[in-house]
Amino acid sequence: MGNKAIKSEQQLVEGLESYLEYGYIDPFYINCDSFDENADQVEEYLRYLSSINIELVESYYKRIIESEVIWNDFFKSRCIFRLLLSVSERGYAFNYLNENSENLSIPILKEALSYFFYSKNDSEARLVPEGLFKKLQARYEEVKDEHDAKFYHLDEEYNNFVKAYCLS
Length: 168
Prior knowledge:
Blueprint: H1 9-22, H2 37-50, H3 54-66, H4 73-85, H5 90-99, H6 106-118, H7 132-143, H8 147-151, H9 154-164
């Protein structure tokens, strides 16, 4: 938030709504060290808002993931990962992955595989929709040779996932 001034919940919400509608909070915000300064600014807003209203933050994660205005798949992958870690929204994340498995971006697929690998011993993680793992495997097979798959080290995440669940 540039000037680091404390913003009210209403100001944070207005900024996030602007991001969802236009793809930015402040058109004059510049961060030369950032690949996507708009996503960085939104992360900051979400971080501040999480101390006020976590349920609202989780609803913004969902809206960002589903947004057609937001094109940053890396940012969307961070949102889905946070929902996977959320006890109250994990079911939404599982359903999203299940319903959109054929079109998951490489960053989102990587985060899903990573989540399932690290949460193997978590009983909640075992409540996945039937067939989701097969769908994730099928999506991996479709994208594994793309340049981004190598960039995001998708092979490593996939191999860990397959070994953890004895899938082949």
